[in-house]
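Subject: sequence -> structure tokens, single chain

Hey, anyone have a minute? Need the predicted structure for the following. Not urgent.
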Amino acid sequence: MKDEKRMRFVSAEQVARLAGVSRSAVSRTFTPGASVAPATREKVLRAADELGYHVNDLARGVLANQSRLVGIVATKPELGFRAHLTAALAKALIRRGSIPILINTGQAEEELLAAQKMLIGHRAEATIILSGSPPASFFELAQRNGQPLVVIGRSEPDADHVRAGNSEASRNAATAFFAAGRRRLAVIGSGSGTPSIMERESAFLSAARALGAEVTAARGPDSDYDSGIVAARELFLSDEKPDAVFCANDQIAFGLMDFVRTELGLRVPDDVAVIGFDDVPEAAWLSYGLTTFRQDPAIMATRAVELLERRLENPDAAPGYERVIPELVIRKSFVPT
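Reply:
Had a minute. Here:
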């Protein structure tokens, strides 16, 4: 009974028997550019359609020591902008004929290396990394196996990478607040310490100080909604409450806005102006109307796949670098003057 229920895929041998041709004729029919007589091809295709046969791409990849698999390695891929970027990457990879594999992993070195070894074991042709801080051993293992890496959200000297214009956007946020007459500025970063979050926080603080504004920083334990509440509590239960806050991502901004309006009765933007970063769909909800810097996940994904294509065509090329500058999307949480 167990043998009868076991999954059985239609084989090329079955197609050959039904079509009345050799096994090699079936193989040539489904091999691009291979020579096969038109009449034979027609018989094979008719038999394959009748049986529901599909080529075993996995076996072909093993024989060729490569595959069309591309790994996407991410920590918490279901949250915030990363969810939309993951979806955009999957679509972009499928368009190029690749098979995306999502590895949901933690930030610990052993977890990241385990994900990478899994992809190398399945002969994935490349890996795209969304996690914030892969260890040096991750890149060394990829180099030893000749596996291309594309990193999104951080710079890595030995890998192709795509980054948002974090510093430009953060400086623009400080300048816009100051031009609107806001003088007690704050930035909310994250205890997660990812390169993108740190760059946004650092650039905003430097720009605000250069303008002569009072500026403070707060961090929640992570870069999510609850962390926005934690950081808002720290900022607004102090003696010097800010009148404008730049949040390192939209999830943090949502937590901040809900806290100051619900717990403190403050008005946004009258009492406190708020700018976020990412422009996830919830930013446009009527309950938030968040002014934020837009990262376009489709553009980021396209740039990443272009770097991957370039690397596969020229493995010895110098590392490629794409920088995507976010645009400010103005809504009701802050309107620049």
